[in-house]
Amino acid sequence: MGLGKLGLSSSTLFVILLCQVSFSAYQMGKDPCHLKRDYSPTYRKEGDLVIGAFLSLFLKTESQIDKISSRFPPAWIAADSRFMLKHYQHFLTFQFAVDEINKDPHLLPNITLGYQLFSNFHHNQLTVENSLIWLSGKGKGPTIPNYNCDMQHKSVAVIGGMTSALSMAMAPLLGLYKVPQISYGPFDLLLSDDVQHPYVYQMGSKESTLHLAVVQLMLHFGWTWVGLVISDNMTGEQFFSNLKEEMTRNGMCLAFVQRVPKNIILKNYEGIKIFNRIIASSSNVIFIYGNTDSLNDFSNLMSDFSLYGKMLVTTSSWDFSTDFHNEISHFHGTLILSQIKREIPGFTDFLRSMNPTVNTEDIFLKSFWEVVFDCRLSEKVPAAMVYSLCSESLSLENVSPIHLDKTIMELSFNIYNEVYLLAHALHQMLETDPKATSELGKNSVLSWKLHHFLKCVNPVLDDKDDSCGYAARMADERYDILNFKAFLGHIDTQVKVGEVIPHDKELIINEEDIDWPEDFAQTPSSTCSVSCGPGFRKTLHKNQPICCFDCTLCPEGKISNGSDAEQCIQCPEDQYPSKEKDRCLPKTVTYLAYEETLGMILASAALCFSILTTFVLGVFVMHRDTPIVKANNHSLSYILLTSLTLCFLSSLLFIGRPTPTTCLLRQTTFAIVFTVAIASILAKTITVVLAFRATKPGSKLRRWLGASVSFLARNLPDTFNEAKHLTFSMLVFCSVWISFLPTYQSTKGKTMVAMEIFSILVSSAGILTCIFAPKCYVILLRADRNSLSFLKNKANL
């Protein structure tokens, strides 16, 4: 029959076996409820209400559970005192918070808080055993499930553990009795499951904006090609998803993503493969995300694998200096993002007051004291030959920072807040329910009632219940930017060099205070491709990240005025690209001014020719009834003279400062009027050709053109025959404009304008001269030839 049919899970069976093992480690005393115990694994300070603290000091390795080992008492495993020694600050912060509350006359008046301290040695099995001890009594009796040797029910809540694994180890037992459990470790999505862990609360920050802070830091230093190392769990995957999305939005790329299993030391060559991949990466900046527990083996391996040429960035959740025997010089220059720490007033004075000669029952203070000062507190131990007695002048103020941080660590601050959270929740509960005060120590239901007030006293803590009248809200997160500096003698420090507010996209950093890793003489760079400067645009590689690209020079007429431009832009019409194609330069406005000699000459010529043409037009109008005007088709002559006048005047549009209007009218006006002039000339040419053909004997054109015309054109003398004049005028016209084209292309600026004006004037003057000069000569100077009698006499000759 399987465990499932019995209704037992593997974890339940494990608890039962552990209870049997634990019970066998005791001997029956006189009182059947109090068994003799060789050692007391806890320190308890009595009070009206007692809070349990499941903390981690030192380390014990996990032992394998099998059928054979479960038949005997658990073997004693010595604790490794070199590991997690700095976490004794958690104990001190907890004790300080309780003492501070007891001295506050306004918070829980007439009620004294007590506490019971446990060290689970970062060991899941010991965490379960400590839970049984907590539920069974004061710690002096046996660990008997579902039996409490303490006649008074003073225990109300538990604070612990440091990691989600430790929290989940104690949660099933404590959950059976609905004991409120507040985890002080990093926030974990697994613990937020209401079904699996309905009585577990988390004080750790959700770090919902950590990925934004990381991207802000990378953008500041221009790190667009970054490697990512994450813990192989749900929290790591959630952070990876958020970070990748934000990096893509900002045009940044991940060179690689390496997931780190928790126990990589036990896996063959797994650690070597991980570090080889990190070292072989082309990215110079590596961001490491995880906590002290999940990256414990990774920290130990880093003592053997130095990440040369790599700049490390991480968070304060990963304390890589917990094992002070590990080589920490490899971490010199590391940047650490940490939740902004707040000072706790009076904590330094509290450290001075802590002394094992005063707190004789505090086994954790004694152990820590003997380890950090290398002395012994008792004269009866065999270690007298090795260690001397501890001096009475010693104080926790003299402890090296590698053993005890003087600044409050993030987890310690969580513990401090959790103690106050419980105190405020108890205070509200006792004020709301006066009967609860009289039930102190008599009824275990007190801890059950506490859940509602825990959820209502601090909405930031948990969002499981909205019955308090407001929804949970996360406060805006702020992060300190710390620089880890390692010195000789295993001395290290973390110096604040900046601050980042992700929601406001505000980053303040003092780069002068940063010590970079020894492999970098200046601020490290981490890019897949060299940045494209102004004048170039990015050309992406096929099937490659957007951070890997080539730089291509902008095409003609376009520029890029910034770094890493996606596209080149066209310059405005009044500007042109610089030689480097990095900016648009204003075009120099050059024009032919009236004040210049050349401009004045051309303008005067244009006016003179226009006046002369007008004069010729007037002559033709005044002598419109004369034979020479009639014979040359006076209507076409009027049109031609008018268009020539306008041609001369249109040249004035090319002189003076150009405006959008004049630039538009220049070519258009001249093209129209000159086209009319040429059309008139062609009409005259066609008329002359038809007239000569009509005069031929037997021509059918005679009846179409009319008798008058045919008669006048039949034997026209040279005086009236303008065929050769038309031909010569067109030769002049063609010669001028054919010569103009190559000259126009080879000149620039005002010279080009002058050439255009000169061509207009010469071509127009040529037409005026060739066609109308002979006629004006006859009309004005040889009027005797401009008569019918003269024509008849010459025709009869």
What does this structure look like?
The protein is built from 23 helices and 22 strands. By secondary structure, it is of the alpha/beta class. Strands 10-9-11-12-13-14-15-16 form an 8-stranded mixed sheet, sandwiched between helices. The protein has a 6-stranded mixed sheet with strand order 3-5-4-6-7-8, with helices on both faces. The chain has a two-stranded antiparallel ribbon with strand order 1-2. β4 (49-55), α3 (88-102) and β5 (113-119) form a beta-alpha-beta unit. The longest helix has 35 residues, at 660-694. It is rod-shaped and about 165 Å long.
What would the keywords be for this entry?
797 residues; alpha/beta; 23 helices; 41% helix; 13% strand; disordered N terminus
Produce a short descriptive summary:
With about 800 residues, the chain is an alpha/beta fold.
Given the helix and strand composition, which structural class is it? Answer: alpha/beta
Helix content: 40-55%
Estimate the strand proportion: 5-15%
What general form does the structure show?
rod-shaped
Radius of gyration: 51 Å
Give the beta-strand count: 22
- Give the biggest beta sheet: 8 strands, mixed
The helix count comes to: 23
Task: Give the helices and strands, then pairings.
Elements: H1 3-6, H2 10-23, E1 27-28, E2 35-36, E3 42-45, E4 49-55, H3 88-102, E5 113-119, H4 124-136, E6 155-159, H5 164-176, E7 181-183, E8 200-202, H6 210-221, E9 225-231, H7 234-249, E10 253-260, H8 270-280, E11 285-289, H9 296-301, E12 311-315, E13 335-339, H10 347-353, H11 363-373, H12 410-432, H13 434-438, H14 445-457, E14 479-487, E15 491-501, E16 506-509, E17 536-540, E18 549-553, E19 558-559, E20 569-570, E21 575-577, E22 584-586, H15 597-622, H16 627-631, H17 634-650, H18 660-694, H19 702-705, H20 707-714, H21 723-746, H22 749-780, H23 788-796
Parallel strand pairs: 4-5, 4-6, 6-7, 7-8, 9-10, 9-11, 11-12, 12-13
Antiparallel strand pairs: 1-2, 3-5, 13-14, 14-15, 15-16, 17-18, 19-20, 21-22
